[in-house]
UniProtKB/TrEMBL annotation, chains A, B:
Key words of the record: Acyltransferase, Amino-acid biosynthesis, Arginine biosynthesis, Autocatalytic cleavage, Cytoplasm, Multifunctional enzyme, Transferase
Localization in the cell: Cytoplasm
Protein name: Arginine biosynthesis bifunctional protein ArgJ
Superkingdom of the organism of origin: Bacteria
Length: 409, 409
């Protein structure tokens, strides 16, 4: 068995109820035995939904389905199983989706187009849809407004801890709550179709505005996080807004009244993204990379991800080695504007390379002490512009090889 | 110490002399002690030179210098040291280049603009140029037409074996010889600025034509090979043609008389690229990936490299696991045109997934037997076009982590 991540919190956070949302988990025995593997949420009529889906060109049938539902943008139910990704399963893929959708629609009493589904687990194995449909009526009957821990656990695959986060804010003086959870232990976990996240709020927001705010929050949270650079066939993030808070309906995404909401949603999604990186396969260190002075925010993010995805940077951190040459290398391969002679690299707050060369006689002691810790900070200033981004990842250790090379044996 | 690659040949190949080329290696003590670390080649007057350099935006000072010399395209000497990459060394970088260029120019009696240099090794440490310049006169005096083994060894860093290859052909009925060598143990070796390759021929070819043929051969050899996807600050390939064979000067790169030469140069460079992949850090398996049916050759290459760079595919192969779901995932993330339902994936010649799903009840025995071997073949047909490419890589093992995480300790 895989060791629990050293970053696992002592307990799952207490998440607040969201008016209009009831949720829970159940054991359907899709693949795992003796643990919940089916998550369901029931949403009150009038709930709008936004989301972000994998850009993979080999995406799964459930993702195809969600793309259709998101166009309409209203939802009454979400049904998710773990243990089987229902990806690359040919025509049986959409058949599996149909069984899940039918079961949820019947239980909730809504149309099929109001049901979102996701599947995570092994690729290429036919989904045993009957086990899921059989479990749905009882699962639905037991949904509660505080079923967060069961729900978060039910979507886990190789995760070593469930991941939840919440925040509150106000829209035009009306209090609003956001809560959600995520699974993922790498952009791809072994054999697993991986990152899923479900976020709920009682805010009243038109779907186009919710979609815009969600997209931006994704770019600054989940899209700033990487474990191994591999892209899932099933990545799915859904944000459901029940409208029960009763705030005044905003007119546009940039509405001043939405400032608090934008920040709170960003906070929840960032929190969840960081938890995913901290549960990265084999992770022994959590790495935050701040890139400043790039040509644009996009350029900064790409440079940050290039550093975060470099196996040589990740192994150096695992080895507690301030190998800044590898960071310079990763900046160079990112393909974004950079000037060798304007780069500044700091580790743990100590500048160790600047103006195109290593800092002679920098004090190695604080850097070495920092690298012995669990939380590693890398700052890179590109020195040519004002674009900045923060990116999160974990180190690359023997644990990753153990998990991924020895998965079936 | 790192174990020698299981793919290391019993001995360095016997390479033929190239008329107009004298070469050899010497110990300058730049970093390594008790082994050759300085390679020099002297080229007869009239030698033209082509090449390919790293696209890294943080490339080293020696690469900057080579880019200048290649514009003119004639050369009389090549001088290369191992153990120090002279990369990210600020103003001292070009100073180090100057010392090397001066030493070679003086020894050979040529202009500075006729000297090419390369450095490979640690990034960010000032090059001890005096040790190099001191060693050059004696090194130059001892150059011979059969100094290949010394030369190939002198440029090694973390390589576990020297890599050489040769081929013969004819241009318009006149026999022509090509021989060369390379170093590299990953696109980046630990702390090392990595892939270098030097190829020599007696063919008589104008520099623009040589450059065109070289570029194409690079795209189908070194650019089809990856160990860890990281890009060196120092990658340098040089092809020097002395013109001593006396063949009729070709008029263009597509000249029919050059067919044999193009193929022979491709063969030598492909051979060297494969040897680099086989000496990849921690490699226990050599992987050939044939992509067919893509939208274009470029698309096929990109898909192939995406599979080759996927840590999840590489660890699956290390674990002798026919995990085709990960191959499908890598195709999906390549960003090139692909259709989930037209993909075909074969391992060791056995089709295990096609038409959007796994082949039910495929015979696992030959696949398992194939994966237990050292040479792994993966075939992916995209099913939408005629573009094809072959890509080489190695698996990702505990050895890679050992070498890269524990490098300084």
């Amino acid at each position: 068995m895989t060791a629990v991540s050293p970053f696992a919190p002592k307990r799952f956070p207490t998440l607040p109820p969201i008016d209009g949302v009831r949720l829970g988990g159940a054991s359907a025995g899709v693949k795992y035995q003796g643990r919940p593997d089916l998550f369901m949420a029931e949403l009150d009529p009038g709930t709008v939904v936004a989301g972000a889906l994998t850009r993979s060109l080999t995406r799964s049938a459930p993702v195809d389905w969600c793309a259709q539902v998101l166009k309409k943008g209203t939802a009454r139910a979400i049904l998710v199983n773990a243990g089987n990704a229902n990806a690359f399963t040919g025509k049986a893929g959409m058949e599996g989706v149909r069984v899940m959708v039918d079961a949820a629609a019947e239980a909730v009493g809504c149309t099929r187009k109001e049901v979102l589904v996701a599947s995570t687990g092994v690729i290429g194995v036919k989904l045993p849809g009957d086990r899921i449909s059989k479990a749905v009526p009882k699962l639905r009957a037991g949904l509660t407004s505080d079923g967060w821990p069961q729900a978060a656990r039910a979507i886990m695959t190789t995760d070593t801890f469930p991941k939840g986060a919440s925040a509150t804010c106000a829209i035009g003086g009306v209090p609003v709550t956001i809560a959600g959870f995520a699974k993922g232990s790498g952009m791809i976990a072994p054999d697993m179709a991986t990152m899923l996240s479900f976020v709920f709020t009682d805010a009243s927001i038109p779907k186009d505005i919710l979609q815009k705010i969600t997209r931006k929050a994704v770019d600054r949270s989940f899209n700033c996080m990487t474990v191994d650079g591999d892209t899932s066939t099933s990545d799915t993030l859904l944000v459901a807004a029940t409208g029960k808070a009763g705030n005044k309906l905003p007119k546009k995404a940039s509405d001043k009244a939405l400032k608090g909401f934008r920040e709170a949603l960003q906070q929840v999604m960032t929190d969840l993204a960081i938890q995913v990186a901290k549960d990265g396969e084999g992770a022994s260190k959590f790495i935050t990379i701040d890139v400043t002075g790039a040509a644009s925010e996009k350029a900064a993010r790409r440079i940050g991800l290039c550093i975060a995805n470099s196996p040589l940077v990740k192994t150096a951190i695992a080895g507690e080695d301030a190998n800044w040459g590898r960071i310079v290398m990763a900046v160079g391969k990112a393909g974004e504007r950079a000037d060798r002679d304007r780069l500044t690299v700091a580790v743990g707050g100590t500048v160790i390379a600047e103006k195109g060369e290593g800092v002679p006689d920098y004090d190695e002691a604080p850097v070495a002490a920092h690298l012995k810790g669990r939380d590693i900070q890398i700052d890179v200033d590109i020195g040519i512009g004002r674009g900045k981004a923060r990116v999160w990842t974990c180190d690359l250790t023997h644990g990753y090889i153990d998990i991924n090379a020895d998965y079936r044996t």
